[in-house]
Design a protein that fits this description.
Order of helices and strands of chain B: HHH
Bound molecules: pyridoxal-5'-phosphate
Number of strands of chain A: 14
Number of helices of chain A: 15
Shape of chain B: globular
CATH class of chain B: Mainly Alpha
Distance between the termini of chain B: 6 Å
Structural class of chain A: alpha/beta
CATH topology of the largest domain in chain A: Aspartate Aminotransferase, domain 2
Order of helices and strands of chain A: HEEEHHHEHEHEHEHEHEEHHHHEHEEEH
Radius of gyration of chain B: 12 Å
Strand content of chain B: under 5%
CATH topology of chain B: Non-ribosomal Peptide Synthetase Peptidyl Carrier Protein, Chain A
Helix content of chain A: 40-55%
Helix content of chain B: 40-55%
CATH superfamily of chain B: ACP-like
Number of helices of chain B: 3
Structural class of chain B: mainly alpha
CATH architecture of chain B: Orthogonal Bundle
CATH superfamily of the largest domain in chain A: Type I PLP-dependent aspartate aminotransferase-like (Major domain)
Oligomer: heterodimer
Strand order of the largest sheet of chain A: 4-10-9-8-7-5-6
Number of strands of chain B: 0
Shape of chain A: globular
Strand content of chain A: 15-25%
Chain lengths: 390, 85
C-alpha cells in the first residue's frame, strides 16, 4: 500500500458529501470587516463561529501594542526560548498571567495546543496514569499520548464516574493527573468543577483544568470557571489559550506548584518550537488587561448567548445542555448538519460544522460562538436564519 | 475470575449492541475495518468493559488490538494481573 492510499476513503467521502460547493472545513475568508463581519465566498457574512468571544481582534489598544512591538522588536523571535532567549515581553506576560490568577508560576507557550502537549507530557511519563474526561479536546488526548502515561477516560462531566475510576486505580490514584475543561468546546457545557475538586482531593490526585473557552467568558475578572466556582487555589494546573478571548495565538499554564518552572527544561513542545512573536505577545498583554476589566463585554456576551440559546430552543433545535457563548445545534446525520450549514451560509451567517468523531455521541453539530461585539441586529439576523431553516 | 470464554461472550454482547451486525460477529471480526467502529466507539466500548468487569484498562492497551479476539485477550490479561480480582 502506498503512503497515499489511506487518503482515498477521505477523498471519496469529501467528494460525495461536499461536491463542488464551498468547503465548510476551509471556508474562504476573503476580507475581514470587523470582529463580526467578513466577506466569505463573495458574500458579506456575519461571523458566528470564531471563538472571538470578547471581540478584541480589532481592539485599538491591542492593535497599537502589536504595531509598536513589530517596529521595536521585529516580526519574529526565530527560535525557541531555550536557544534564542526570552524577550522581555515573554517574561512580562508570564508575570502578568501569574498575577492575574494570583498564582506563583506561569509559563507561556506558542499555541494552546502546545500548552496542553507541553504541560501534560512534561508532568507525566510512562510510569504515571492520567484520567481524562471522555470528551476532552484533541490537544489533551495528544498530550497524554506524548507523555506515554496510562490513559483512563471517565464519562463526560461525571464526577461519580471519575471517583469510581480513581478507586479502581488503588494506590496509584494518589499521583494521578485528572484533566477537565472549564467550558467544553463542542456543546458549551460547564464542568461540575466543585464536585471534581472534592473527588480529586479525596484521592489526593492532581487536577488540570483547560480554560480555553472559559477564559474571559466566566468569572468577575474573566479568569474562567475556576474563578466563577472559587477554586483557583484548589486547582493544581490551569491551562488556557490566547487564541479565543485574547484574540491572538499562544497558550499558558499557571500553578502554585513551584515545579511548573521545570517543565521548561523537560518538555519537548516548549523546547523544540519557536517562541511567540513579539507582536503576538504585545497584543496578548493588552488583551489580558481588557479581559480583566471586561465585565461590560462579558455582560453583553452572556446577554446575546442567552437570547440566541432561547430562540434556537424555541425554534425546535436540539441544543447543548445549558446557555453559553458556545451554542451547538445537534443533528442526527452529517447531511442534515451540512444542509443547515449551507443554508446559514446562504443567509449570510458563518458558523462551524463539526462531524463525528470530533463530536460527542456520534452526532453532527452546527456550532455557534457568540461574540460580545455582535450587535443586537446581528443576533436578530442569526435568529431569523435559524428559524427559516428549522 | 472470568475465563477467556466468558469475557469473549460479554465482549460480543457489548459489540452486538453497538454495531447491529451480530450475524457475523466472531472472534476474528476486525473492530474498525469490519465492524466499522470509529476510534471513539472503540474507546467508549472500553469504558463499558471497564465497568462490566470492574477493572481499570488504560486506553493505550488498545494499541495493538485489531480483532475481537485481541480485545478479549487483553481484558483477560488485565483481569489476571489485577490484584484482588
Ligand atoms: C479545549 C481546548 N484546548 C486547547 C485548544 C487549543 O488551542 P489553540 O487553538 O490556541 O492551539 C482548543 C482550541 O482549539 C480547545 O478547544
Amino acid at each position: 500500500m502506498s503512503l497515499f492510499d489511506k487518503f482515498q476513503p477521505l477523498l471519496q467521502d469529501r467528494q460525495s458529501l461536499l461536491g463542488q460547493d464551498v468547503d465548510p472545513f476551509g471556508a474562504p475568508i476573503e476580507e475581514i470587516y470587523s470582529p463580526t463581519e467578513a466577506r466569505i465566498n463573495g458574500r458579506k457574512t456575519i461571523l458566528a463561529g470564531t471563538n472571538n468571544y470578547l471581540g478584541l481582534t480589532f481592539d485599538k489598544e491591542c492593535l497599537d501594542a502589536a504595531h509598536a512591538a513589530l517596529d521595536e522588536l521585529g516580526t519574529g523571535t526565530t527560535g525557541s526560548r531555550m536557544a534564542n532567549g526570552s524577550f522581555s515581553g515573554h517574561r512580562a506576560l508570564e508575570r502578568e498571567i501569574a498575577a492575574f490568577y494570583e498564582c506563583e508560576k506561569a509559563i507561556v507557550f506558542t499555541t494552546g495546543y502546545q500548552a496542553n502537549l507541553a504541560v501534560i507530557s512534561g508532568l507525566a511519563n510512562n510510569e504515571d496514569t492520567i484520567v481524562i474526561d471522555a470528551d476532552s479536546h484533541a490537544s489533551i488526548y495528544d498530550g497524554c499520548r506524548l507523555s506515554g502515561a496510562d490513559i483512563v477516560r471517565f464519562r463526560h462531566n461525571n464526577p461519580d464516574d471519575l471517583d469510581k475510576r480513581l478507586k479502581r486505580l488503588g494506590e496509584r490514584a494518589a499521583n494521578t493527573l485528572v484533566i477537565i475543561e472549564g467550558i467544553y468546546s463542542m456543546l458549551g457545557d460547564k464542568a461540575r468543577i466543585r464536585e471534581f475538586i472534592e473527588v480529586k482531593n479525596a484521592h489526593q490526585a492532581l487536577l488540570l483544568v483547560d480554560e480555553a473557552h472559559s477564559l474571559g467568558v466566566l468569572g468577575e475578572r474573566g479568569r474562567g470557571l475556576v474563578e466563577e466556582a472559587g477554586v483557583i487555589h484548589e486547582t493544581d494546573f490551569i491551562v488556557g489559550t490566547f487564541s479565543k478571548s485574547l484574540a491572538s495565538t499562544g497558550g499558558y499554564c499557571v500553578s502554585n506548584h513551584p515545579q511548573l518552572d521545570l517543565i521548561r527544561y523537560a518538555s519537548r513542545p516548549y523546547i523544540f518550537t519557536a517562541s511567540p512573536c513579539p507582536s503576538v505577545i504585545a497584543s496578548t498583554r493588552a488583551a489580558l488587561k481588557r479581559v480583566e476589566n471586561g465585565a461590560d463585554l462579558r455582560a453583553r456576551l452572556w446577554r446575546h448567548a442567552q437570547r440566541l440559546y432561547r430562540h434556537l430552543h424555541d425554534a425546535g433545535y436540539e441544543l447543548g445542555p445549558e446557555p453559553c457563548p458556545v451554542i451547538a445545534a445537534l443533528l442526527d446525520t452529517r447531511e442534515q448538519a451540512l444542509a443547515l450549514w449551507r443554508g446559514l451560509h446562504e443567509h449570510g451567517v458563518y458558523v462551524n460544522l463539526i462531524f463525528p468523531p470530533a463530536t460527542p455521541d456520534g452526532k453532527s453539530l452546527v456550532r455557534i460562538s457568540v461574540c460580545a461585539a455582535h450587535t443586537d441586529e446581528q443576533i436578530d439576523k442569526i435568529c431569523e436564519a435559524f428559524s427559516v431553516l428549522a | 475470575m472470568a475465563s477467556y470464554e466468558e469475557i469473549l461472550e460479554k465482549v460480543i454482547g457489548e459489540l452486538s449492541a453497538l454495531t447491529a451486525t451480530d450475524a457475523n460477529l466472531t472472534e476474528n471480526s476486525e473492530l474498525v475495518t469490519e465492524l466499522g467502529l470509529d476510534s471513539f466507539k472503540v474507546l467508549d466500548l472500553l469504558m463499558d468493559i471497564e465497568d462490566e468487569f470492574d477493572i481499570s484498562m488504560p486506553v493505550n492497551l488498545l494499541a495493538d488490538v485489531h480483532t475481537v479476539k485481541d480485545l478479549a485477550e487483553r481484558i483477560h490479561a488485565v483481569i489476571n494481573t489485577e490484584p484482588g480480582t
